[in-house]
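During the no-cost extension, the postdoctoral fellow (Dr. R.K.) reprocessed legacy sequence entries with the updated structure-token encoder. One reprocessed record is reproduced below for audit purposes.
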Amino acid sequence: ICLLFSTIYHTFSCQSAENFDTLLTFDILGIAFALLMIYLTGVYFAFSCYE
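Re-encoded structure tokens follow.
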């Protein structure tokens, strides 16, 4: 989903100013979501117990 938002942004952002602003917002949200998931995955594996 995150890379899909970025692909759509870079493909369709040059059509109009409205599209640019909206798609940029979704692109940034996708990047933020990806970074959050990377962080949470690291926290999960750092604190999980393997017995």
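The chain is about 80% helix and 0% strand. Residues 2-47 form one domain. The remaining legacy entries will be reprocessed before the final report is submitted.
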